[in-house]
Write a structure and sequence with these properties.
- The protein has about 325 residues and is an alpha/beta fold.
- It has 9 helices and 13 strands.
- About 45% of the residues are buried.
Length: about 325
């Protein structure tokens, strides 16, 4: 293992032969945890990218004992079928894995312009990388998001595609005021160098939301956000994710994250905590009416109750509630 010039929490365990790091224009980071077959499917979709850009893929293994994902992908790297690196992020957690990959990209690839993110339960459209990079360049955006299209294990669950938990936040390409997820994302090298490591706040390691917080802070720093509706990734959705308790837990969690991110954003301003709490209470009071409006529009009780759960999550965050769904990834 080749230690990175850091605290030793990240190790390089695989490298494609004859990797010319200085020629790489884009780096794709791919975190994985106990999904050896799915990470291979993600890599297959990356190998099929149609682009003239020279890109490398960094797989970040976040299960440092069994190393199932790393063992699955290493032969592809050793044979040169995939160009890039395989690293182990020894500290467990969503944010730790992302930080490991992003810092490795900065250290190992001196000339890349764009860093892209895809998860190990996703596969990319063949035009994905090219469209994301082109969107950043044509929109003048420092960060670009794209849709994660749900692919349900049970086709009967396709009716859930329009639920706010699964639906993309935008339908049209262009500059946007906010982004919320790193599941399909492009970040400019200029953003990473300005923000500096650790990029994602480790307090969100097992809850999720470190990406939302990072994106919020990037906007505060003046970076421009964009959306590329044509750059799709397909996200595998197991049957358990359409169960009522999972939807409820994810909705509450989204509310908790909203409060925590807003508190960080307002930190240092007068009466910051009071203003966040009053906003949460106002949203809770308004949520039944917002729910009724959604019910009238969609005829879906599950969609209608979403703003109520989010508002409850915002208020519960004031009392220390944190739904750390990534503590038990097998149930996530």
């Amino acid at each position: 293992m080749i230690p990175l010039p850091s605290d030793g929490s990240v190790s390089i365990v695989g490298r494609s032969p004859q990797l010319a790091a200085e020629t790489i224009d884009a780096v794709v980071t791919l975190p994985t945890f106990k999904r050896p077959q799915q990470v291979l499917e993600t890599l297959a979709s990356l190998k099929a990218q149609r682009t003239g850009r020279r890109f490398a893929v960094i797989v970040m293994e976040n299960e440092a004992e069994a190393l199932a994902g790393a063992k699955a992908v290493l032969p592809l790297y050793e044979r040169g079928e995939v160009e890039g690196l395989v690293v182990v992020a020894h500290e467990r957690g969503n944010c730790s894995a992302y930080n490991a990959g992003w810092q490795t990209a900065i250290v190992q690839f001196p000339n890349f312009r764009h860093l892209l993110v895809i998860d190990d339960d996703e596969t990319a459209d063949p035009q994905w990388l090219e469209r994301m990079c082109k969107a950043a360049e044509t929109l003048g955006a420092d960060i670009v998001g794209g849709p994660q299209i749900p692919h349900f294990a049970d086709p009967a669950h396709a009716k859930w595609a329009d639920h706010p938990v699964f639906a993309p936040p935008y339908r049209m390409s262009g500059r946007v005021p906010a982004l919320y997820s790193s599941g399909n994302l492009l970040v400019g090298r200029n953003v990473l160098t300005a923000m500096g490591p650790p990029f994602l706040d480790l307090r969100f390691n097992f809850m999720g939301g470190g990406d939302s917080d990072f994106l919020s802070r990037a906007v505060q720093r003046g970076f421009v956000l964009g959306w590329c509706a044509e750059a799709e990734v397909r996200e595998s959705v197991p049957a358990r994710r359409v169960e009522a308790d999972w939807i409820r837990a994810r909705s509450l969690r989204n509310g908790v994250i909203s409060t925590l991110v807003e508190k960080k954003k307002r930190a240092g301003s007068p009466l910051a905590g009071t203003r966040v709490l009053l906003k949460s209470l106002a949203l809770l009071a308004a949520s039944p009416f917002r729910g009724l409006t959604r019910l009238a529009l969609t005829r879906s009780p599950a969609v209608a109750i979403y703003p109520i759960h989010v508002a409850l999550g915002r208020v519960l965050a004031e009392f220390g509630y944190a739904n750390e769904q990534y503590r038990q990834p097998e149930k996530n």
